[in-house]
Each structure stands twice: as structure tokens, then as C-alpha cells.
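Page header: ASSEMBLY MODEL / two components / 537 residues total.
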Amino acid sequence: MTAIAFQRCGGCGATWYFARGFCPRCGSAEPERREATGRGTVHAVTVVSRAPTEALRRHAPYTLLLVDMAEGFRLMAHGEPGLAIRDAVRAEFHEFDGATLPRFRRAE
Amino acid sequence: MTPSERKGERMPLSAETDTTTPRHLRDKYAIVGVGETKYSRGSGLTTRALATWAIRNAMEDAGLRPGDVDGLLSYQYGSDSTPSTFVAGDLGIRPNFFMDVHGGGSTTEALIGMAMGVIEAGMCRTVAIYRAFNGYSQVRIGGTGVRAAIPVVGDALHGRPYGWESPGQWFAPSFMRHMHDYGTTPEQVAMVKVIHSEHASNNPKALYPKRVTVEDVLSSRMICTPLHLLDCCVETDSGTCIIVTRADRARDCRHVPALIRATVGRCCKPRIDMHYQAGPISTVAAKYAREILWPNADVGPEEIDVTGSYDAFTFTTLMQLEDYGFCAKGEGGAYVSDGTMRLSGKRPNNTSGGHLCEGYTHGINMVIENVRQLRHDADDSCPVGADGKRIHTHDYREGGCRQVRDVELTANLGWANPGTGSALVMRRG
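Prediction written out in full:
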């Protein structure tokens, strides 16, 4: 099943999104891989009207999000139209230009 | 130290590290020459030709011959320029030092500091810093044109799947969050473009010299929220150059020198790879850079007469002025819209029209403009007197003067992204 993976430091408890060999906060080299619940809050949102490349033109407009996840890390993702900062959201996934990406919807 | 020994120990942040330059360098170096080619959309020239013309014009401005310049520094973004090794020979310069670095915005001020360093180290005497690129007709910053064929590497890799790969998109989350956190409005921010267009209308070199209104900005098409087309700078072809040497040598040059009080180079927020990942994104690297800039310059923002706050977008001007302390945190919207930044205002900003109107150069034209302001010789349409200097009227109506009265201190606030910035304070010599 598709899920958002993140890492948690066994030493200091810090969490982060992109996989690393050691903790960027305390340097401990024992990060644990976890799967997120998919719940979070919109930290920032921008709607892209003018796609940056020809390949993405057919997708515009699309909504880019920064999401503060319940587990304490922040990630970039796509979102459904109309989301605003502070909205509670939950992750789903969609295909975008050949990749599977997290796409958030408003949480009920 | 092994990772387990480091356990529990926090790595130092930039603001906690003593990175200040020695204060004995204050006013020891100067910018003595500035030059540029035409700002255009379609130069019809190679970047090699743009670079050589810009350096030649700067040498002529300073009253220097090719044999007087023995150092070259340039910057390029994704191999969009020609390196010093080709440019030097065309100009008859034999370098004792050269270096071509990667980078776009915020590089200018950093290279000025590096030029001081290499001269101080005895490696050369006089350094020409140049930026030459066909930012419209060749390698466009937004990802289209030739840039579309350039491989995506490094930090840019993670943004591509999301369609997050142009500067406007990179910075937009910070701008949106600033509006949310502090109530900054699109109308306030549009005033940055309005005011810079007023300045450009008094600059015969400006690519976009037409004055615009808040309504013009807000009714232009949306690129990505909150950026309308007119919130974005103008992709430009140009070559630009500044010449740095020691202040005692500057006395032999043609103009009043612009003495360098302090530089900060590519100062960063705690995470610069993906700046948005942690912490408040409505605060930018200036928060850290100001802790170096003002003590080194031995002046504060309230003493600065003219600012050059990087305007890749209207919002970048605002966020930097705010975080360098020209107004209280969160009051940037009021600062940029209350008339302070006008030529007739308390502290004019980007008096050439900046990236939004004069032309996009990755920051160097804003330093060139402040050098001219410090000489009291802005190249506007005012009449030239018998001594060859313009007689400035200080009538700032459209098509008129753009020289600010009695400029003694200027600040340049360079921007790479929300996570990285550079700065420069200069004084009239």
C-alpha cells in the first residue's frame, strides 16, 4: 500500500521527510523508518497557473502545498483546489506526469 | 568524533558562529568603475561579447587600462555565461587571479567581499566582477527555452515531480505565508512595482520605462499565487561589471569612490537545501545576515539613504527590507506602500527600476546604481554641465531626475532564495 514514509531519530526524537543516514539535529546514525498517518495541516499553498515546462501545461492550474504532518515533519505535496493555510488535510495519492505523488484533501 | 559520541549534541547554526569580517577592512576597499551593455530582449551578441563590452565600459568609467586590472570574478547559473579565461584575452587583461563561480541572485555582494579578500591576500591588485547572460534570448530562468534541455540535478531534483521548478514557485509559499501571518495585502505589495516603475521612467537605460498602477499589477495574469505577471522581474539580455580595488588606489580613478563598509556573502538560514522544511518560512536569511552586516558597517538601517533590495519579485524586496530591520517584523507591507521607497521619499529603493523594470541581472545592476547614487551622478536625462557632470534638478516627475539628494550611505540586499542572502553597505568616499 502506498504511504508517506519518514524517518525518526532514535536518539533525540526528531522527525524528517527525506531519507538520510544520520539525524540532521543530533547526528545520531540510527534513524528509524516510519509510515505517516497521512494527517496534517496546510502550512502554505500556491496555485500554479503557468506551468514551468511544456510537459506540465496540460496539468495547470495545480495546487502545491507545504503540509505540517501530525508526526512533526513538513513536506511538499499536491492538494485539491481551494485549500487554505491551517486547513486540516489527509493524504491521498495521484499520478502526475508519470510519478505517484501525495495529494491532500480537506479532512472531514 | 563518531556519530554516537556526537549523540545529544546539537550542530551549530550559522547565527551562532562568529563569521564577522575584521573591522579594519571598513572603507579600505572601493568600487571605482561600473559599466554595462544595453538591457535588451534579444542582444544579438554572445555572452563573451556582452562580458567584454561591460568590462571595457567599466574600465573606461574608472579611467583604468587593461594592464591595471589583474583579477577577474564572474558568476553564472547553469553554464549560462562565458568564463574569465576567454574574456580576459579579448580585453588584453593578463590575470594574476580569476575565478568563475556558480550562482545567481545574492552572488554580487558575496563576490565583492571575495575580491577584497584576494586583494588583501596579495593575490592581485584590482578585480573586475562581471555577469553576462542572455537571460531572455538564450537561457531563461523559468525553465523554458534552452534551460528546458539542461539536466535537472541536485536540490532541483526533488521539486521536478511536483512541477515546482521555477523561482516564482520556489518562493511563493513564503510569500503566501507572509500574507497569512502578517496580513500583507496584494495591493501593498503591488506598490513595489509601481514605485520601481516610477524610477525606471527616469532611467533612459530601463527595459520597461513605462509607469504602471496598482490596478495594472493586480489585473495582470496570475503566474502562481500570489504572483501576478507584473510581480515578476523581466528576463533580460545584458552584460554588467563593477571594479573593486583598494581605496588608496581609488584616488587615481575618475570618480568619487564608493567605499565598501561591509559585506555579507550567501548567509543562510539553518536549512538551505530545502528551506521550507522547518521553521517559519515568512522569515528570510536577512534575519541572520543583519547580525553581520550592521556591526561590520558600524551603521544601522536608520542611517541608510538609499536601498537596493533585490526585486526578482515584488515580495522579495518587502521581505528583505523587513528582515534587515528597515521596519518592524510584519510591517513590510506598510513600508513598501507608504511612499518611503519613492525618489522623493525617506529612503528610496532600487532607484534604477531594479529587476522589475530596468533589467534582470542577478543583482549586479542594483550595486551599479548605488555606486552612481553615491557619486551624485545618476545617469538620468538631466542636462550635463561644462565639467561633464549632470546638473540634477531633483524633479522626479516622469522622464526627469532620479538622483537622490545628498546620498552618503547605501545598502544592497541581495537574494538567492528565502534561505540565502547577501548584502553590502557602501559610503560616499
